[in-house]
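agent> fetching stored inputs for the protoporphyrin IX containing FE docking request
agent> found them:
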Amino acid sequence: MWPRRDKFPPGPYGGLKGWSFGPLNENPLEFFCGLARDYGDVAGIRVVNFRSIFINHPSAIEEVLVGHPRRYVKGRVLRANRHVFGEGLLTSEGDFWLRQRRLVQPAFHRPRIAAYAETMVQYTQRMLETWRPGEERDVHQEMMRLTLQIVAKTLFNANVAGDAQDVGKSLEQLLELGADFRRTLLVPHWVPTPANLRIKREIAFIESILYRIINERRASGRDTGDLLSMLLHAQDEDGSRMNDKQLRDETVTLFLAGHETTASLLSWTWWLLAQNPHVEAKLHAELDGLLSGRAPSLEDLPRLPYTGNVITESLRLYPTAWGLARIAVANHELAGYPVKKGMGVAMAQWVVHRDPRWYDAPEQFRPERWEGDFVKRIPRFAYFPFGGGPRQCIGNSFALMEATLILATVAQKYRLHLAANHPVVPLASITLRPRYGVRVILESRQRRTMEHFPKASQTTQAMSAD
Ligand code: HEM
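agent> prediction call returned; pasting tokens
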């Protein structure tokens, strides 16, 4: 399909200029959209002496993630954060990663995660008990707190939820610091800069708590039905189990990967719903029709197809993992171009998910587009919010179940109106989140008091990153 070429693909920033680092660091969403607009399916990026190929066609993406995953390792930003994640699933490689993936996978099998559905709904209801109609809240903060509590409960069980909360706060600081790509890539983590010293302190704090929890659980020998128990009892084919360091790395990874992504997905969903009242009305009709005010359960999910499509469409427009990066460890021909060992490959869900070749009116929020056999009519990697191939997200079913249950529980009780004069701006750091949160005013769906709420058209939203 691809004509063969011997050269590095054309791209906008060549030679020694190296100034591509500016737009790439400052507004990566716009940077990658610009590459696709100007160069099509393949573009070359040069940053100082590092060369990377940006691919924007589903078949090329599939070729890297599914066709030849062993020719690539994770990209530079994730690798530069290895002192945080250690050798956890997100950052480890090769045979070590494969062994860990096999050990952790059973903890994410359907019957096991099904047991968490009730926890997800209960914690959401507990959050709703603190909400009052007419109040203004930052729904992103609410979702962050909620998904953190859920991951803490499902990872460590309730008796350590207080500790887990502290770990979560520290992890948020780490995410914040790790998101500064320029600093992360240019300054090695062992250089004693103020940011690196803070990172070191946060890691030490997290480790002190995690090792204590691990020791207590080991000593008690009990299976408390949470992920940590699963990890402690998981056995390799030769009967060996994870040591404390491996447990630390996997729990930090699951904690980090497992809460901010889902929280941001929900925040974007509330923001999209508030601007699309016809979608919101259809969602309410489905929820009210099936549930009539009762709490949703796992068994209800197959009977809530529109609710599921709202989440699918939200992840298309605002994929919280907005881009993936790899480094070649072997030579490869990709989309007709030679990829040499050491070169980077980048792909962006943000760009592919908005490509008019695969989606009509791609900028519009239309959950209906997922009805019928639409998925079969688009290429496999035209939609890949959870990545693909062997390194696909291990938590995708967990995340989709959690997001759908939270959406169904909250949307039955409240409408969320956007607060006036509050900009909602995407920030593409390690995940895609709203930079200044999403401020909303709560309207109870039981007792409508519309005079409190501004019309959606009176609210100010800024779509582009500033
Ligand atoms: C909306 C929510 C989520 C999104 C969009 C998301 C997205 C992703 C993506 C794109 C990858 C692949 C990264 C790559 O190939 O470089 C990934 C990997 C991973 N995710 Fe998620 N994720 C979500 C939720 C979760 C949850 C809830 C958990 C755990 C509780 C989780 C745990 C992981 C882990 C451990 C990996 C590494 C898997 C491996 O390489 O073996 N994620 N995620």
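agent> quick read of the result: The domain at 21-458 is CATH 1.10.630.10 (Cytochrome p450).
agent> awaiting further instructions
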